[in-house]
Amino acid sequence: MEPWVLVALAAAAVQTARFALQKTLKGAGLSAAGATFSRFLYAAPLALVVSAVALWVTDAALPPLTPRFWVFAIIGGLGQIVATMATVQLFSERNFAVGIAFTKTEPLLVALFSFVLLGERISSAGFAAILVGAAGVVLLSWRTGGGRLALFNRATGLGLLAGALFGLAAIGYRGATLELALDDAFLRAVLTLAAVTTFQTAAMALYLRMAAPGEMTRVVAHWRVTGLVGLTGMLGSLGWFTAFALQNAAYVRALGQIELVFSLLVSWFIFNDRSTRRELAGMALLLASIVALVLVT
Fold it and tell me: Which residues does the UniProt record annotate as the domain EamA (predicted)?
């Protein structure tokens, strides 16, 4: 098995574990913002240490962090913050696997936004994949009570918001890494990760200080779990960046959809959730459409 495959599978598994831990924190009394803050609070120092070690091992100098770099990094960082908050809140609305499935609409939304806003062409195969994905979202959005279609319920809104903003974050992070004057892709990735997570920690701390006094104290009080959230968050991000450095991003993103399978296993065996046949069909359609889209574009 090729190294990038192992790295991508590990990243997907670690990311699933991180979301599961954040769902646990939400159930333990932390707000969605507090559970999100835990992802960055402990990840930032870890990312800084990894960056320092990487610079030392490669004997490279820290490149200039230009204003353009920070624009991309901040856009990506803010997008990820709001997307993560929406995902954690979504876990209160729907079961774990369905919540993760909604966040996986990101490639579909990015392709659709590129077509509508930028006029970028979509191939016939790509358009067909988007239609299949839309059918999957419709099945996931069908309200369980009353038998009526509810595309614009709260859960659907949170899920699509998360997917769209995770897409925006990915674009921001790619833009930031390209602004660093380094040939080593891994080094660009870890430096961007360190800069972004440090910004996110500061931004979230300021927000919680003003909007939710005492929430940071509660995050620290749950340090056994929040520390694991930070560790898995940093390892997951590092894994994705490494996989992207080793292989075409389309193949990595396609393989990364296995996170849906991991989330189903966690949902069934840890949270004792049961998805309906309709939800499973929706997830299957969504998974097929995303894999098809990233492979044909």
Answer: 4-141
